[in-house]
Amino acid sequence: MSNRVVYLNGEYVAETEARISIFDSALMYGDMLFEMTRVFNLKPFRLREHLERLYSSLRYAEIDFGLTIDEMEEATNQTIEKNLEAVEGIDFQIMHNVTRGGMAFYDTLVKEGTSPVVTINVFPLIRHQGGMVEKYEKGAHALVPAQQSVPSRFIDPKCKNRSRIFYKLADLQVAKMDKAAMALLTDEHGFITEGTGNNFFMAKDGELYTAKPQNVLRGVSRQACMDYAAELGIPVHETDIEPYDVRGADEAWYTSTTVCMAPITRFDFQPVGEGVPGPLYKKLIQAWSDDVGVDIIGQAREYAKIKDKWIP
Questions:
Q1: From CA 204, how far away is CA 281, in angstroms rounded?
Q2: CATH 3.30.470.10 domain extents, the chain
Q3: Could you tell me if 107 and 113 are in contact, meaning their C-beta atoms sit under 8 angstroms apart?
Q4: pLDDT tens-digit series, residues 198-251
């Protein structure tokens, strides 16, 4: 059984005992902002950038929970420190969740009160990374579902929030076509935006293309990929991308916090380029690995060896 602990409104409680009310606004409305950061060699990667985005999301949602960003960073580091023995040297994700709190209508039933609820927890990446080996080596299949992205004029995707049923519907629609495929959403004009929890890139003639930043989450990993490309002298364009363009791409991949970069080698049941992870993808994932001092794909292979025996 896990002996990890969770930061819960300034206190540390056992992970298995961390709870919030069923009358919390997070459950009633999906009214929660969050961030996920990962570590390499037990050190957080771009934590400050994740926290800056969290605080931007909190301003957007008009939630003030009383901690400065510096205090939140310190609480995060303390949470990591308290869990280092429990993670046994395994790299992990760091999850920040902030809810608006219990709804006032049910105030007599909410023991935590109606103030915002803040949690910070860590979770080893064995399942995340250990289950990614085949995608790293062979690539993913991406399909465009009928469900589209929500335009920023309705709910701004740059605010990382839990009101994401459209993500789930997109995944369900894609699974009916190919259970192993990932969803790649489009906006109301038919331009590709993002996946359900990741950002999209394609390469053509030695240059990279990714969606404009208006109707997508401006991913920290997305920015990292662009930064590594700049260091390698690879041009990057933020532009409108149509499904038609992906069919003619040389390479494609997606970025996200836990997996960093994973290749997309099939799109709409057709190969992307040669149908295998391409040279630009390999250069960038190697640059990322070199920067953080971890062989990202190699780590996935190691975690794959133990994931079926691992007890969370």
A1: 12
A2: 5-124
A3: yes
A4: 999 999 999 999 999 999 999 999 999 999 999 999 999 999 999 999 999 999
- Where in the chain is CATH 3.20.10.10? 133-302
Q: Hey, what CATH topology would domain 5-124 get?
A: D-amino Acid Aminotransferase; Chain A, domain 1 (3.30.470)
Asked whether residue 31 carries a pLDDT value surpassing 80, the answer given is yes
CATH number of the domain at 133-302, out of 3.90.1640.10, 3.40.50.2300, 3.40.50.300, 3.20.10.10?
3.20.10.10
According to DSSP, the residues that pair with 270 across neighbouring strands are: 267
Q: What is the mean pLDDT of residues 112-138?
A: 95
Q: What confidence tens digit (pLDDT) does each residue in 34-61 have?
A: 999 999 999 999 999 999 999 999 999 9
